[in-house]
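U., I forgot to send this yesterday:
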Amino acid sequence: MEDSLTDLNIGINDDLREKLVKQQYYIVGEHSGVKLCHWTKQDIRSQGSCYKHKFYGIEAYRCLQVSPALTWCTERCSFCWRGFSYANGDNMENVVHEDPKEVLAGMIEGQRFLMSGFGGHPNVPREKWERANLPKHVAISLSGEATLYEHLDDFLRLCHEAGMTTFLVTNGTNPEVLANLKTLPTQLYVTVAGASPKVHSSITRPFDPKKAWQKLNETIDLLSSIDTRKVIRLTLVKDKNMVEPEKYAELFLRSGAHFLEAKGFVSVGDARDNHGYERMPKIEEIVEFSEKICETAPELSIIDTSVSSCVTLMAREDYDWRKFKFDYLENE
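Result:
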């Protein structure tokens, strides 16, 4: 019986845990974690904020960047700078999925621990630092595939009950999880790295290529029935997946999502082993590719651009995105 219990609690092992801690991750329990985003550290010092602030009104210095499935993923994306995202494989069947209340509490505790050094920083007003210790947003995007966590629904509910908005990022390989959510994220991101099976598989390197493409398409077709704000995110690698703009446009229009983001990949972390700096598209190239997407779908247009994050934001011409941004900020 003891061996059976041990087999069912294979979480983050000691060696990987040590590596993550050295990289300034705060590990929560056996399968979750939080890490300060670059833009969180910039924003707390009033030195700039990420595209999520410009596009959607998110305050980066009050944003938790987390994952309840830190080292588990269904894909091994070549552009992922967190190469250990899939270190424990593509499922969490051998893990005891921990209580979402304890997971969320641990994440907030971890964020406060990681932010503690900014309390006496000369460029950080005390009042701002105190607000930073009361997070308002949860970006479930740090590493791994969050839909593998069986208590995701309750986790989202607890975030909202605590007065925080949620951004859930998924690679679309678990549409059945999205279909069964009772608590929907404030905003749902679906990452698309290729508009055809061959391109998609060459970039995302899924554990099950045929299934991954099929599941992504199921997710695309499911989105129109999910009543929350939705974004299709294109992560673009120069000379790799900046092709077939008309197919990206078709996927987006099929999805019924509100926004289409085109973001350039960044050659940092473990991604450097796969793509060098020459594969990082410049903002001009991202804009040019976005224009090609819009040319194939006249109802689409570029509505915003973030140079610092190398990303464009597109939406349908008939979508009242200005009201969306205003409402979102008002609700904060």
